[in-house]
TrEMBL record, chain A:
Superkingdom of this protein's organism: Bacteria
Name of the protein in question: Branched-chain amino acid ABC transporter permease
Keyword Transmembrane in annotation: yes
Organismal lineage: Bacteria, Bacillati, Actinomycetota, Actinomycetes, Micrococcales
Region (Disordered): 337-366
Transmembrane segments annotated in the record for this chain: 7-24, 30-49, 61-82, 88-110, 117-139, 165-184, 215-235, 241-258, 265-284, 304-329
Main location: membrane
Gene: livM
UniProt entry keywords in alphabetical sequence: Cell membrane, Membrane, Transmembrane, Transmembrane helix
TrEMBL record, chain B:
Keyword set includes Cell cycle: no
Name the UniProt record assigns to this protein: Branched-chain amino acid ABC transporter permease
InterPro entries tied to this protein: ABC_transp_permease, BCAA_transport_permease
UniProt source species: Cellulomonas phragmiteti
One Pfam family recorded for the sequence: BPD_transp_2
Family: Belongs to the binding-protein-dependent transport system permease family. LivHM subfamily.
UniProt KW keywords: Amino-acid transport, Cell membrane, Membrane, Transmembrane, Transmembrane helix, Transport
Localization, UniProt: Cell membrane
Protein's gene: livH
Length: 366, 292
C-alpha cells in the first residue's frame, strides 16, 4: 500500500468513525472512546509482537506511563495558565515521550534477550507499577492523579454532548497512531522488522542491525501505548495504578492474538472485543435468573473466562486470529469465483495462485 | 544488628520457597524450552485442593499430600492436553497458550470460590523463637526450609543418581539422539512437567500461610519472584535456582525491613534489570559458556 493511500485510508476511517458518533447514544460514545484508547495500545502491541517477534506483557505499564505523563503535564500547564488545544497537544506529546523513553530502556534491555526473558521483564514492570506510584510523591499512590474537569469547547457545546466530544478526540489520536503504525509497517522499517523476526542472522548478513531494529520496534510500540494511556486518562479524567494491572496487560495480548498477530485490522477487532465482551456477558447474565451471590462472583470473572478460552481455542485452531480467518475466507471466495467464471478472453491470472499482494499481507504467526 | 540477623533469617526462609518454585520453572524450561507462565495459576489449583482436603479431614499432612498430587495431575493434564497446540515454529505460542491458561484457571477459581482472601493457618507456631533475646526463625519457617531443601535434594538425587533421571536429562538436552537410543522423549517431557507442577504446588502451599491468604491470585507474586530467581540463577541451572532464590529472598527481606514493603517489587525489578543487562544468561549459568 502506498503511503498516500494509507494516509487517505486513515483520514477516511476517522471521518467515518466521527460520523458514526452521531448515531450512537452517550454511553455508546463513551465505549467508542474506550475502544479508541485500547486500539492505540493493541495496534502498537500487534506491530511489536507480530512484526518484530518480541513479546511484551508490560503494555499496561507503558499505558500507565503515558497516562501519568499526560495528567501531570496537563496539571502543570493548567497552573501556568495554558489551556485548550495547546495544553492537550503538549500533554499528549509528553505522554508519548514518557512512554517512549520507558520503552527505549525496556527495548535496550530486551534487544539482548530472547522471548521469555523479555516477557518476564515486562511482566515484572507491570507488577511494580503500584509500588512506583506509591513511592514517587507526585504520582500520589493508589489514589492516582485527578484531572480538572474539561467540557466540550465553546462553539461545539450547543451541538454535541461531552461523551461525543471525548470520542472525537480519542478517535483522532487513535487515527494518528494507527496510521503512523501502518506507515511504519509498510515502509522500510517494517520490512527490516520482519526480516529480523524471521531470521536474525540472515538479517544481519543483509546489512540490518537486528538490535537497533528491535529497539526501534519497542519504542514505536511504546509511544502508541503511551498515546493510548493519554486518551484513557483524557476520557476517564483520572489516572491511577488500579487501572493498569497485570490483567489489562494480559487482556491486551489476548486482544492482539484473537484479532490476529501483526494485523492492524485485527488490533481494532481486538480493541472492540475488549470493551464489548464484558458488557455483552454482563447483559446476558443480567437477563438470566441467577441468585445475587452467583452474579456477584461471575461479574468480573466470566468475561475473563471467555477471553481465556477464546485465546486458547484460537491459538489451537486459527493461529492467524480473526483477521487471518477473514483474509483466508476472502481468498477462498475469490478463488472459487474465478474457477466458476467463464474463461476471459484476455490473459487471465492463474486461478490457483492468489494475488501476490494478498499473500504478502496475510498475517503470519509471530 | 539483631534486626539484620532476623531479616537475614526470614529472607533465607522465603528464599528457599522462591528457589523451590524457581526450580519448577527451570525443570520445565530445560525439558521443553518453555517458560511456564501458568505455573502460579496451576500451583494455586493444587493449593485449593489441599486446603479443601485439610478442611474435610482435619489433617494438614493429608492436605499437603493432596496438594502435591493435585499439582502433579494439573501438570499432566496441561502437558498432555494443552501443549500439543504449541507450535514448534513460533517460540511465542507456548507463552501465549500459558497466558490463556492463567486467565482460564484464575477465572474458574474465582467463579467457584470467589475473590476474597481465605486465611490459611500454619500447622506450626509461626511466631519467631527468641535466641539470646534476638528473634530468629519461627518453627514454621524451619519446617518450610527443611521441606523445601529436602525436596530439592530429593529431586537432585532423582536426576543425578537414577536411570529415570538420566533419561530425563538426556531427553531434555538431546531429544533426537535420546529417541534413537530408546528413551521415550514425549513421556520424559510429561514426567518433567508433572514433577515441576507438583513441586510448584508444594511451594505455593507452604507460602500461603505466610501471605494474606488463599485467593485465585495468591501465587502471582510467587511466580514473578520465582521468575526473577530463575533468571538471576540462569534458567538452565538448578543450582542457580537455589542460590538465586536465597539471594532474592535476602534482598527482598532487607528491602522490606529497612525501606518498606511497598518498595519490594521495585527492588526486584531493579535486580532483574541489572542482572539481565550485565549477564543475560544468569549469574550461575555454566551451560551457556560451554555452548559458545
Amino acid at each position: 500500500m502506498s503511503a498516500r493511500r494509507t494516509l487517505l485510508l486513515g483520514l477516511g476511517g476517522l471521518i467515518l468513525a466521527i460520523g458514526l458518533t452521531f448515531l450512537l447514544d452517550p454511553y455508546r460514545n463513551y465505549q467508542l472512546a474506550l475502544v479508541a484508547a485500547y486500539l492505540c495500545a493493541t495496534a502498537g502491541l500487534t506491530v511489536l509482537v507480530g512484526l518484530s517477534g518480541q513479546l511484551s506483557l508490560g503494555h499496561a505499564a507503558l499505558m500507565a506511563a503515558g497516562g501519568y505523563g499526560f495528567a501531570l503535564t496537563s496539571q502543570a500547564l493548567t497552573s501556568a495558565g495554558v489551556g485548550g488545544l495547546p495544553r492537550f497537544l503538549a500533554a499528549t506529546v509528553a505522554a508519548a515521550v514518557v512512554a517512549g523513553v520507558l520503552g527505549l530502556l525496556l527495548g535496550l534491555a530486551g534487544a539482548r534477550l530472547h522471548g521469555p526473558y523479555l516477557a518476564g521483564l515486562t511482566l515484572t514492570l507491570v507488577v511494580a507499577v503500584p509500588a512506583v506510584a506509591a513511592s514517587v510523591g507526585a504520582l500520589q499512590g493508589d489514589r492516582g492523579v485527578q484531572m480538572q474537569f474539561e467540557g466540550v469547547p465553546g462553539p461545539l457545546r450547543a451541538l454535541i454532548a461531552l461523551e461525543q466530544w471525548q470520542a472525537w478526540v480519542a478517535l483522532a489520536v487513535a487515527a494518528v497512531a494507527v496510521t503512523g503504525l501502518a506507515l511504519v509497517r509498510d515502509g522500510r522499517t517494517g520490512l527490516r522488522m520482519r526480516a529480523v523476526r524471521d531470521d536474525e542472522v540472515a538479517a544481519a548478513l543483509a546489512g540490518i542491525a537486528p538490535a537497533r531494529v528491535k529497539v526501534l520496534a519497542f519504542v514505536v510500540s511504546s509511544v502508541t501505548a503511551g498515546l493510548g494511556g493519554a486518551v484513557l486518562t483524557f476520557v476517564t479524567q483520572s489516572v491511577s495504578p488500579g487501572a493498569y494491572t497485570v490483567s489489562l496487560s494480559l487482556l491486551l495480548l489476548v486482544a492482539v492474538v484473537v484479532g490476529g498477530l501483526g494485523s492492524l485490522l485485527g488490533a481494532a477487532l481486538g480493541a472492540v472485543l475488549l470493551v464489548l465482551l464484558p458488557w455483552l456477558v454482563g447483559t446476558v447474565t443480567d437477563m438470566l435468573p441467577l441468585p445475587s451471590q452467583v452474579t456477584q462472583r461471575i461479574d468480573g470473572t466470566l468475561p475473563l473466562l471467555v477471553f481465556g478460552l477464546l485465546l486458547i481455542v484460537l491459538v489451537a485452531c486459527a493461529p492467524g486470529g480473526l483477521a487471518g480467518a477473514l483474509t483466508a475466507a476472502r481468498a477462498r471466495r475469490r478463488a472459487r469465483r474465478r474457477l466458476t467464471a467463464p474463461a476471459p478472453t484476455t490473459a487471465p491470472p492463474s486461478p490457483t495462485a492468489p494475488a501476490p499482494r494478498e499473500s504478502a499481507r496475510t498475517p503470519t504467526e509471530g | 544488628m539483631d534486626r539484620f540477623v532476623f531479616l537475614l533469617g526470614t529472607g533465607l526462609a522465603r528464599g528457599t520457597l522462591f528457589a523451590l518454585f524457581a526450580l519448577a520453572l527451570v525443570l520445565i524450561w530445560r525439558s521443553t524450552r518453555i517458560v511456564n507462565f501458568a505455573a502460579g495459576a496451576m500451583a494455586i489449583v493444587g493449593v485449593y485442593v489441599g486446603v479443601a482436603v485439610t478442611g474435610l479431614t482435619g489433617s494438614y499432612w493429608l492436605g499437603l499430600l493432596a496438594t502435591v498430587l493435585a499439582g502433579g495431575l494439573v501438570g499432566l493434564v496441561v502437558e498432555r492436553g494443552l501443549l500439543r497446540f504449541a507450535s514448534a515454529r513460533s517460540p511465542l505460542s507456548g507463552v501465549i497458550l500459558a497466558i490463556g491458561l492463567v486467565i482460564v484457571l484464575q477465572s474458574l477459581l474465582g467463579i467457584a470460590f470467589g475473590q476474597q482472601h481465605t486465611p490459611v493457618r500454619a500447622p506450626f507456631d509461626d511466631r519467631p523463637v527468641q535466641v539470646g533475646g534476638v528473634p530468629l526463625l519461627s518453627p514454621y519457617d524451619v519446617f518450610v526450609v527443611v521441606v523445601a531443601l529436602g525436596l530439592m535434594a530429593a529431586l537432585r538425587l532423582l536426576f543425578v543418581r537414577t536411570t529415570l533421571g538420566l533419561q530425563l536429562r538426556a531427553a531434555a538436552f538431546e531429544p533426537e539422539v535420546s529417541r534413537l537410543l530408546g528413551v521415550r522423549v514425549a513421556r520424559m517431557r510429561t514426567v518433567g512437567w508433572v514433577l515441576a507442577a507438583a513441586a510448584a504446588s508444594l511451594a505455593a502451599m507452604l507460602a500461603v500461610p505466610k501471605e494474606l491468604g488463599l485467593n485465585p491470585h495468591a501465587a502471582d507474586m510467587l511466580f514473578v519472584y520465582a521468575f526473577t530467581v530463575a533468571v538471576v540463577g540462569g534458567l538452565d541451572s538448578p543450582g542457580g535456582a537455589l542460590l538465586g532464590g536465597l539471594t532474592v529472598g535476602v534482598v527482598m527481606s532487607l528491602v522490606t525491613g529497612y525501606l518498606g514493603a511497598t518498595l519490594t517489587p521495585v527492588a526486584v525489578l531493579a535486580l532483574l534489570v541489572v542482572v539481565l543487562l550485565v549477564r543475560p544468561s544468569g549469574l550461575f549459568a555454566a551451560a551457556e559458556a560451554r555452548r559458545a
